[in-house]
Amino acid sequence: MFRFADPTYLYLLAVIPVLAIIRFLTYRNQKKRLLKFGDPKLLRSLMPDVSRFRPAVKFWILQGALALLVVMLARPQFGTKISNEQRTGIETIIAMDISNSMLAEDIVPSRLDRSKMMVENLVDHFTNDKIGLIVFAGDAFVQLPITSDYVSAKMFLSSIDPSMIATQGTDIARAIDMATHSFTQEEGIGKAIIVITDGEDHEGGALEAAKAAKDAGMRVYVLGVGSTQGAPIPIPGTGDYMKDNTGNTVMSALNEDMCRQVAQAGGGAYIHVENNSAAQDQLDNELNKLAKKETTSTVYSEFDEQFQAVAILALLLLILEICIYDRRNPLLKRLSLFGSKKKAAATVALLLVAMTASAQTDRQYIREGNKQFRVGQYDKAEVSYRKAVEKNPKNPQAAYNLGNALMAQKKDSAAVQQFEQATHIETNPLRKAAAYHNMGVICQTHKMYGEAIEAYKNALRLNPNDDETRYNLVLCKKQKQKQDQNQQNQNNKDDQKKDNQKKDDQKDQNKDKKDDKQQQQQKPQMSKDNAEQLLNAAIQNEKMTQDKMKKQQQKPQRRNVLKNW
Question: How many helical (H) and strand (E) elements, i.e. helices and strands, does the chain have?
């Protein structure tokens, strides 16, 4: 991430084109005045020590130095500084609803955009706390593992969209359950789950999940987004609105009762997001009630000053401008650096190369990260590799090495993303095979044997001589076979239990029939009056049953609608 701390100073760059215009007008007037004295060729022969190009070179060097000084005043910054800090705070997992219903525009600009603004404000208010991000609809997954890196939290937040989850709907229970397993193992620290949703829970089980989270020592807070009157759900890019299976336009409304019940079951509070600042204050008050604990965190500070490199470049340009004379040096007459346009262009090119070389390249960052990685400083190596990626996003070695640094820190999901990026931009088959191999190792560690097998196969296609990959592939196949067999055995046991249950039910039915026959055989014969009474009662019951069936048929039939919002 890059920014200027004081971007107002950048307006001073407008002085540079103004100076260029003034210089051009001055040079043209000077040329006109010289023409009054005689032929230009004759005048040049009379002034052999005067250079046509030195003044222009000196002017543009000064212009470059001025531009760099303005940039230095604006304070350029990168967000890649790392530090280990002792922090006293809480752990917070934000579960954000990104189902299609969050696209409703009953609040401006939309429910989803308002939720993003709310989360961004929440992150800005955090100073010593850890934060994680989960997105959910009909399914849920961890978008950002719990961390103190607020820069990454904002970066991941900007990419959130309902299209990220193919299974639509709203499963609040799944999101809360995933959040309960996403905290660290530290004890004695306050843990909060913040669910941002419109409360349309299609799957059920949210109250039970919230109660389970409360029993585990966590608090569930619900931020309700939307209006209770409801609004249609726009379909992006079409100008139309979403419809259900009956062809009616879906009206999505905030279910405040559900939100309150979930918050109450989770031991937290329900907050209706109408005004961001008011909701933020209320949430801060609730979070301040949680217990705080001192923890050590690896923090990537939001911005690191980079004006020093700019100042060095400006100083070098000023020194160079002083060293260049307006006239040719009598001692260096034979050395004509500015005697022709080609030589002048070559000199300017050399200056540009020198300025470029003074800045640190992506390869230098990679070498620096490699040194840190060898001595076990994986967090610092990660920062160096990230700098290399920022310098050159298409550098496959930087992406691969960053994946290794993340893998060494057990940041497996982020490591897999980096290895996948490396496979897309890598041209060397051996390094590409190594990236697939590492992806397979991570999947194998998490018992995702199917994905691991595919990764190992891709690695072997690129590097058939890798015995380690071949061994891991065979091992994964055996483990997957064993896993499938255990699953099959479990399914067989379930089927056998069902069969046994059916047999037992059948035996009970046969026994009941046999007992009924015996009872019928043992019953004394009824009198004629008793038989008529029983017959009348049966006729009356049959009539009542027919009346109920007719009433039921007259009622409108309810149709199950597949909800994808």
Answer: 19, 13
The ranges assigned to domains in the chain are 2-78+306-328+338-358, 81-301, 377-479
* Runs of H (alpha helix) within 130-228: 150-158, 172-180, 206-215
- 62: exposed, middle or buried (C-beta count within 10 Å: 0-12, 13-18, 19+)? middle
Cα–Cα dist 262/86, whole Å? 34
Q: Cα(102)–Cα(218) distance, rounded to whole angstroms?
A: 26
CA distances from 420 to 267, 369, 463 (A): 41, 20, 17
pLDDT per residue of the chain (565 residues) written in tens, 0 to 9: 567 778 888 899 999 999 999 988 988 887 787 777 767 677 666 666 666 777 888 889 999 999 999 998 888 876 555 555 566 788 999 999 988 888 888 888 888 888 888 888 888 888 778 889 999 988 888 888 888 777 777 777 777 888 878 777 888 999 999 999 888 888 888 899 999 998 876 677 889 999 999 999 999 999 999 888 888 988 887 888 888 778 888 888 888 888 999 999 999 999 998 777 788 888 888 888 887 776 665 555 555 677 888 889 889 988 988 887 766 655 555 555 444 555 555 555 555 554 444 445 778 888 888 988 988 888 888 888 888 888 888 888 889 999 999 888 888 888 888 898 899 888 888 888 999 999 999 988 888 888 889 999 998 888 888 888 888 888 888 888 888 887 777 777 766 776 676 666 666 666 665 555 554 444 444 455 555 555 566 666 666 666 655 555 454 433 333 566 6
| Cβ contact 70:12 at 8 Å | yes
**CATH match for 377-479 among 1.25.40.10, 2.40.10.10, 3.40.50.1240, 1.10.760.10:** 1.25.40.10
Q: pTM for this one?
A: 0.44
Sequence-separated (6 or more) residues with CB below 8 Å from residue 344: 53, 57, 337, 338
Report DSSP state, residue 526: P
3-state secondary structure of 94: strand
Which residues contact residue 59 at a Cβ distance below 8 angstroms, ignoring those fewer than 6 apart? 23
Secondary structure of 302-355 in HEC code, one letter for each residue:
CCEECHHHHHHHHHHHHHHHHHCCCECCHHHCCCCCCCCHHHHHHHHHHHHHHH
- The DSSP output letter for 31 is H
Tokens of 252: 């999505």
- The DSSP annotation for 408-465 comes to HTT-HHHHHHHHHHHHHH---HHHHHHHHHHHHHHHHHTT-HHHHHHHHHHHHHH-TT
CB 192 within 8 Å of CB 217? no
Check whether the bond before 109 is cis (ω within 30° of 0).
yes
CATH of domain 81-301: 3.40.50.410
